[in-house]
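=== RUN LOG ===
request id: a7f3
mode: sequence -> structure
chains: 1
length: 333
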Amino acid sequence: MYPLFLPRIANPIHYDTIITMMVLVVLVLFLIREKDCYAGLFFMVKKPGISYSIVLICWIGLTPWSHADSWWASKSVEEEKTVSPEIRYQRILYKTIMSEPVRAHILDVTGIGSKYLFGVLGSYGALIPPTVFAKQSGAVAVVNGGYFSTHPNRAMGLVAAHGRVLYPPHAGNHIRGAVGFHPNGIVVDWIGPEDIRENRIVSTKESWNSCYAALGAGPLLVKRGQSRVQTDEEGFNFIQRAPRTAIGKTDDERIVLIVIDGRQPDWSAGVTLGELADLFLSLRTSEALNLDGGGSSVMVIQNQIVNRPSDNTLLGAPGQERAVANVVALLDK
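=== RESULT ===
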């Protein structure tokens, strides 16, 4: 029985990053040689005229360290757990080139179709904590799902279950990505109103026609093994660092769920959409989709929250999970 809707290429060298670093080095050396400059690296004032420190700081602040070969300087596995022979969880600490911590929670799943199924769990007219979805469904794991509104409480974007569309794709000028769930895995692609007829997904993309459930979100992060973050087309902010949730797959149908903690400087800074795409590429995924993030980002395994949500954080204490409209659930078949 299918889940119910309930009440690559190797990391390329990025020459723009190298050029940016070289320019920064030249600027620093120039500042050090200036007779009228004083103080340290990040507080140099030349008189009269514009402070070169402002140029330097702005350059650093605006440079999106979003490439797979540069945004993290090191990584280490802090925790690892074998949930079952087919399911492995890892918490990995990445250190950015600016020494900021970024903690990623990665769930790697095989055995889709033989032992497990992915699906969408949700509720009409109410927002429910992900741990409640997990307990009520008996799910092995859940992560938060698509975007939603609170006035009224409802999903925003495509939601389908049992082959029927419960909420249509995102309306407006942007076509957004979605993930479809079929008996042997997932499909990630753009989907729009033209793919929906009589409350059913009837797509010219053949892979969608075998999907029993689907969830819209976006943007697409990876397509055919390439970074494909189309922020203008899909209407998202590319450079903001934030908590993130995303789902991806490899060519051999291994499914990868990632939750990135963020907005907690001492624990995790979060990532940009480009950095998240690079992380998926480093895991050799061929397709990946960004889901809702921010305070909604959460991963629950065997009824326990394994990440640190950013919602309602106080004085450095871990936050609380946020009630959401739907979740992506990993269920026993």
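=== NOTES ===
Residues 72-332 form one domain.
The first strand starts at residue 72 and ends at 84.
=== END ===
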